[in-house]
Amino acid sequence: MNAVVGRGKCAKAAVGASKMVQAAEHKGCRTSSNSGQASCGSRAGQADLPTEIWEKVKSHPCYSEEAHHHYARMHVAVAPACNIQCNYCNRKYDCANESRPGVVSEKLTPEQAVKKALAVAATIPQMTVLGIAGPGDPLANPEKTFKTFELVAKAAPDIKLCLSTNGLSLPDYVDVIAKSKVDHVTITINMIDPEIGAKIYPWIFFNHRRYTGLDAARVLADRQLLGLEMLSERGILCKVNSVMIPHINDGHLVEVNKAVKSRGAFLHNIMPLISAPEYGTVFGLNGQRGPTAQELKALQDACEGEMNMMRHCRQCRADAVGLLGEDRSAEFTTDRVMKMDVKYDLEMRKAYQDRVEDERAAKAAASKEELGELAGAASEISLLVAVATKGSGLINEHFGHAREFQVYELSTSGTKFVGHRRVDVYCQGGDGEKDRLSTIIRGINDCHAVFVAKIGGSPKSNLIKAGIEPVDQYAHELFEKSVISWFRSYLDRVKSGEIQHVKRGDASIRQKAVISAA
After folding, report:
1. In this predicted structure, what is the pLDDT of residue 496?
2. CB neighbours (10 Å) of residue 340?
3. What is the 3-state secondary structure of 432-496?
4. Beta bridge partners of 130
5. C-alpha distances in angstroms, 110 versus 3, 77, 115, 193, 226?
6. Cβ(219)–Cβ(191) under 8 Å?
7. Which DSSP state fits 381?
8. SS3 for 187?
9. 86-141 per-position pLDDT tens digit
């Protein structure tokens, strides 16, 4: 059976997923900047991007790696229905402290969603983005989705609007998306080969009928790529999410990367499969494993080129609120929000965000100065370090309270963010938990050092035994500047013979971290 690509006018523009097409002129990633740099994406700075693109990403925590240290987002769960089944998804369960896509504690009407958005914006002035990411697919719930965007755009015009979709219905709604002032869209694309897609998607529901197997995968892939092209042609920034599933699509994602890049994707986010059996997904129940930390990094490195990779994704809940890596949704339940006397103060929000920008500029200048000190060093050594932070670019988290560590690769070229490692919170009622310490060490086992604001004697000695240097001398200082300073010292120690540089092993990706403290 031939794939059914589109409806009406969309069908005429359809392209086969297996055929690479000429790249449409993209108004984002491939636009030359004044700096002459071709690279763009999550690590790009103001000098690397055209002004109109920089304005779209500079305060977007998902589209800018640097911004995610300072700015927050919120998801509103107004879209319960979905039109495809993924073998890695199960939306039935919601546990406290659980963070994975598709999970919500409560669903909202558009009117409840806008009240919640105003309440969050008034409480968290650094919240700059509102997204609809489920718990189903926003475009399988078009009335609720676009009504919500209409209400939020009218009530809070400074908030950026985002949409995250599986892409099946995307070609039908591109014009509506553009009219709704949604200028960031994320599409989840896990394959362009239907043979691989059939292993990921048991069925889709399209044009009033259910497709299965190869037919389902073929329709889905064609519609996803067509939708991506149509959005790119309209100048809407597109991020592509891909779930890395070992032995199913891991090698294939390099081809996916090329396909989405040629169609104008701004950013590619390759995420690890979440497959803990207790989540009840098909993959989880069948024993499908997720990738290790080094497997994920190797694939991201292989795909990294002119289109940068997003490495700071936290695979958020569909009702997440706050900075990436934190969830303040419990502060904004519908019961609480409806009782709030919300005053939306646009001037206050702007003043707060202006202060954030001043702080960012100062931090960037400090890091640049420290990097200048490193410029004269010559070494082939590169290594990973882990940083405990609560945000704002500072080393400001106690080792025992850390829910995650941010991991950076250091070399004489500078620093490169490579991801985060979710871990079990070590301190429980003032005491450390031995089993949790073991899982933390496995989670950062590929790192040479861990930077913390403070650390107790027991975890410090255990880290040293594991070959990981605990570093607390830079407490509450800027972490990028600090890790560069430490790296210069490390190279000096290697050069003097004080220490010997050895390569570290692999690390595990914690899928169900215990983040609560007793």
Report:
1. 94
2. 14
3. ECHHHHHHHHHHCCCCCEEECCECCHHHHHHHHHCCCEEECCCCCCEHHHHHHHHHHHHHHHHHH
4. 74, 161
5. 35, 9, 9, 37, 29
6. no
7. -
8. strand
9. 999 987 756 555 667 767 778 999 999 999 999 999 999 999 999 999 889 999 99
